[in-house]
Design a protein that fits this description.
By secondary structure, this protein is of the alpha+beta class. Among the domains are: about 120 residues, no CATH class; about 50 residues, no CATH class. It is about 15% helix and about 30% strand. The protein is built from seven helices and 26 strands. Strands 3-2-1-26 form a four-stranded antiparallel sheet, with no helix packed on it. The longest helix has 18 residues. The protein is globular. The N terminus is likely disordered.
Length: about 525
């Protein structure tokens, strides 16, 4: 076990209330990379805060403000308890003290922070909770279990927003478009490029670029208490930005591709190639599931398979790619006869009756990433209700009007399901063959194609009515829960050295209505990706 006499207990305590400066955050992160004891301390208190966040809250006594002012004026209140050296750590010494701390945190959070996402400007103060008649009168007994507060209600749109001056660290926020409430998602060095909301609306997983390093970082934001967990660094590349959640929101799966950015980058020890990791939200643990170097996260099965906690499908990139599945709870690959040969990155429909997937032959590029080199086509499976998911997967190409002459097709691309398990979307498709339209613009990597399985899949007429500037690109796409619109994040080219990255959101109605724009690529510089409350 690594030992360091100069532990950072005070910084850990302050980090739990969001009181760290950028310099203090950097100091703590650097220390945590080499100190097992402090990492364990931070993990313990993150877990404790997560438990506290689900407890019922109470209003403070009516005379509490007067008592606080009286304490300040009489100089009985010293430095805030979360800033005293070892102050928070010392609270774990006895069960009695922990119980008192729970009550203090609940009432303090109600006064100081208010609801999640609301900024406050109250002065820091330590509170004395002596019994009083008014306090006893104001605390009513809780009846029944208490649900965690919901930052994002069903159907509401929320998006990540990056803001900051050139050559400075950028602040990332998660904003509810309906209410205007926001949650601090941390300080990052690059824009967000992917996001996924957990089924219980309590977690947001997202990926940000790591400056100009060619790397990405994976994060998880707990919307109930605002805790941000860094899940690792990854070399950027196609097929590495899937962020599937298990149906019960207990597990997040993601892909990390080993990259060595030096000992001060705050990244995990680089591995050789691409592998699948799992984040257990209830245990606050990250586990490396594979060590093959060519494994990619696919999707969780929305149905229950035997006695497994959660069934995760993962795919191996190879000349002939293939797919297997694992038990996420036990973090082990299942030895089965699943017919996954030729099947890459299946994505199940919400009802579990179909899946989108890739087929074709793959090649590893010089940078270590994998792409399709021959016959790469997105496919849709048959209906599992008649064939069963364990039967051979016979796919139908998503694009009915594309013919891969000579085997040239898509090198990579992205697809997703709509909420009704019939809508589908495809974007960022890097077509390697001959353009198949009179103007030479179909298929285009700048376009988003939306269609339905029941209405003939995708064609050139499936293109969304988007007009992109030269050099702009599609960052991300997501459907609204009612299936009537789609939110598209559009990245804009940089205006020059030092110019911050910029993007804007377009909410495009699928009935031909007028699109709505959020942002605009100027102020703030980056808006998106977006998610919708489930």
């Amino acid at each position: 076990m690594t030992f360091n006499a100069a532990h950072v207990d005070e910084l850990i305590s302050a980090s739990l209330t969001g009181e760290l400066t950028d310099a203090e955050r950097a100091e703590m992160d650097a220390h945590l990379t080499r100190c097992d004891r402090c990492r364990a301390t931070l993990a313990a208190f993150k877990s404790e805060r997560r438990i506290l966040s689900g407890l019922p809250t109470v209003n403070p006594p009516r005379d509490l403000s007067a008592r606080v002012r009286s304490g300040i004026e009489s100089a009985r209140l010293g430095a805030p308890w979360w800033r005293r050296r070892g102050g928070l750590i010392a609270l774990v010494a006895s069960g009695t003290t922990v119980a008192a701390a729970v009550l203090a945190i609940i009432v303090f959070n109600n006064m100081q922070r208010g609801p999640v996402g609301q900024a406050t400007s109250s002065p820091e103060a330590t509170l004395s909770f002596a019994p009083s008649a008014s306090a006893a009168e104001s605390v009513a007994p809780s009846i029944g279990p208490s649900e965690p507060p919901t930052f994002l209600a069903s159907g509401q749109l929320a998006y990540l927003e990056l803001s900051g001056a050139p050559f400075e660290a950028s602040k990332l926020s998660f904003i509810n478009d309906a209410t205007g409430a926001s949650i601090d998602a941390g300080t990052v060095s690059g824009p967000p490029i992917a996001a996924a909301l957990s089924p219980d609306n309590q977690w947001l997983a997202y990926i940000t670029q790591k400056g100009e390093t060619g790397a990405n970082e994976v994060w998880a934001l707990h919307l109930t208490d605002g805790e941000v967990t860094h899940l690792g660094c990854s070399s950027a590349g196609p097929f590495t930005d899937r962020l599937p959640w298990s149906p019960d929101s207990k597990y997040l799966a993601y892909t990390l591709v080993g990259i060595d950015l030096g000992p001060d980058a705050g990244c995990q020890t680089p591995s050789d190639g691409a592998d699948v990791w799992i984040f257990n939200t209830t245990a606050d643990e990250q586990t490396q599931l594979t060590t093959a170097g060519n494994a990619h996260t696919a999707d969780f099965d929305p149905t229950v398979y035997g006695e497994q906690d959660a069934t995760l499908y993962l795919s191996y990139a190879a000349a002939q790619p293939y797919t297997v599945f694992a038990d996420a709870g036990r973090s082990e690959i299942i030895d089965s006869d699943f017919p996954g040969t030729g099947l890459f990155l299946p994505l199940f429909s919400p009802d579990g009756n179909r899946a989108l997937f890739w087929s074709g032959s793959m090649t590893q590029e010089e940078d270590g990433s994998w792409q399709f080199s021959l016959g790469g086509m997105p496919q849709v499976s048959g209906d599992f209700r008649s064939t069963g998911p364990a039967s051979p997967w016979v796919g139908t190409p998503l694009f009915t009007s594309l013919i891969p002459y000579g085997g040239e097709a898509f090198a990579f691309g992205k697809f997703m399901w709509g909420p009704d398990s019939d809508l589908i979307a495809f974007w960022d498709g890097a077509w390697t063959g001959v353009p198949q339209s009179p103007g030479g613009l179909y298929p285009s990597q700048q376009d988003v194609y939306v269609g339905r399985v029941s209405e003939g899949l995708l064609s050139s007429s499936s293109r969304l009515p988007l007009t992109l500037d030269p050099g702009a690109w599609i960052v991300d796409v997501t459907f609204a829960p009612d299936g009537r619109s789609v939110a598209v994040t559009i990245g804009l080219p940089s205006a020059g050295v030092g110019d911050p990255p910029s993007a804007y959101l377009q909410i495009v109605p699928l009935d031909g209505g007028e699109p709505r724009t959020i942002g605009g690529g100027v102020e703030p510089p980056w808006d998106g990706p977006a998610v919708f409350g489930r």
